[in-house]
Amino acid sequence: MEARLDGRVALVTGAGSGIGAASAAALAEAGAAVAVTDIDLAAAEKVATGITERGRRALALRLDVASESQWRDAVAAVTDQLGPVTVLHSNAALTSRADYAADLGVVDLELAVFDRVIAVNLRGGVLGCKHVLPGMIAAGGGSIVLTSSVKGSTGSAHRTAYSVSKAGLDALARAVAAGYGKGGVRCNAIAPGIVATEALGSVPAAQLAALEDAHLTPALGTAADIAHAVVFLASDEAAFITGQVLCVDGGLTAHTAALSPPGSRLAPPATQGKDNG
To answer: Model pTM?
Structure first.
């Protein structure tokens, strides 16, 4: 990958695995020095080591994104060791099977579960923006990329807290773009479809097949698919894009799955093979 981000310093949250790990690696390959942060320090260190072994600069830090004091310390450490943060990829979220199972419809949802999801998924994004923005503006600007979800703009019968948290991130992208754009800061969100990461490992085969059928692409997305979009939004190629939610979802939200079953999507046009004059 060409060095599109030379001189930038990126901080990625939830970077010990999945989308965060792929984005950290992609940002580094594009030329950025990368702070790899995760609540699991060992996982962050493994990703950072992989980056440094490829001759890139990386720093691993433990970060609980729901803690303001930890955000303050992390940003100070990154600024001291790598320089001011000019790219933030706020990606950390609760995605374990246990978290999903507890996130029910509104009537059955325990408020403690709701509060925990909001604390990580949404509060974490707010705190990240709050603590990187002053240094980012002082450095002449930068780019913030939030990992949202298609669930932020579509309804479902469960995972209420997750959906609300992601809708909040969509609003946060617009708020930051509006408030700090004249300071040289762009802020956007990426809304992935279903991405084949470790979190899908426990999904039953029949359910996984149904999820694949709901997408318009031949297969589910990969973490690399999202990482490419992160690098693009962080780069000067996206200099005129801000306050947007970019769907990287394999067409999941471009159609109504029940009205376009898989077989119908492969049918040839009615005129195919005929002489149309």
So the answer is: 0.92
